[in-house]
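User: Please run a holo structure prediction.
Assistant: Happy to. Please share the sequence and the ligand.
User: Here you go; the ligand is pyridoxal-5'-phosphate.
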Amino acid sequence: MEVGGVFALSTTRELAVADRIAKMVPAAELVRFSNSGTEAVMAALRLARAHTGREQYLLVEGGYHGLFDAAMWMANVEDWKPGSNDDPEMVPYGKGIPPTVKQLAHLVPMNDMQRLEDMFKRHGDKLAAMLIEPIQGNCCAIMARVEYVQLARRLCDQYGVMLIIDEVKSGFRVGKGGIQGLMGVVPDITTFAKAVGNGYPIALVAGREEVMRSFRYGGASHGGTYTAHSVSLAAAEECLRILDETPALETLAGHGKSLMAGISRILDARGIVHSYTGHPSMFGLFFDAVPPDNYRAWKTSDYTFYDTMAGYLHDLGIIVEPDSREPWFMCEAHGLDASCLSDTLAAVERAVDLTVEELAETK
Ligand SMILES: Cc1ncc(COP(=O)(O)O)c(C=O)c1O
């Protein structure tokens, strides 16, 4: 703040932060800075299009990539009949998104290898990019199977498509190198935000050098008044140093494991069947023996218990996402005060009992 915020030229701190990221994320041979996750993914898609000379792109059902027209197409599973042979209709998130954009977008269900291969057979030579969140941070933390992401990698190589792994939520949270590091899959382009600056507005678009060089005069454009803002960069520099050099991420996952184990103790004692998906640092809770492995399966699960319990938790002072599609995210500060876990679990126990009572009455 003392030296200022916005400079028209690059600063040495950009290099220091980019070096740190390149060390932590093998796919990040070159790094550029954006202000938000939306901007970073928008730039990633533009880069893929510039590099391949193609326009179409593939999204995974249940994924979320920010609020720009190309990413605002989703599978309408609410109105889709499970078991039908038809795919859910592709619909816009809301008004104001030109229907012409839809012609460039395709959707596939997560973890369905056959449909992914079929999609590439039909459209692979026209696709600039496949965008995937291997942990769906906006869809119950549904996880891609490693084989599914590996298949995506192989098909992208085979058809000359850019694999974009969107780590806006999972990045610098589930591991130093993100979910791509845990899965051992290297994308062509990758995006990060949120945890990068621990709340300060900064995001990254990074990738293979040869691809990233398409950001150039006469190639793809990228930048903006506030990109690489000094204050956000300073936050990122220190935040990434802590994540890289201390066991902060293990601590974070430890909080998640303790919370999950505590919730399971409460539910098991009452014979309530449940399961988890995602990662201990960002997990989804399901009242079913097997968690959904794609957005279509989410539709067939019963969320009455979760929805009711979330309301009671709010009343008891524990703010959990009322929409069961949002995972539970851990914060390192959750461990600063031991009562944080015990208070939360006491509220969960009470909320579970109130839920059981209410659902028994409505039967
Ligand atoms: C995976 C993913 N990509 C992109 C975005 C968009 O990021 P922002 O809200 O910073 O624009 C989000 C936001 O939650 C996200 O979860």
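The longest strand covers residues 127-132.
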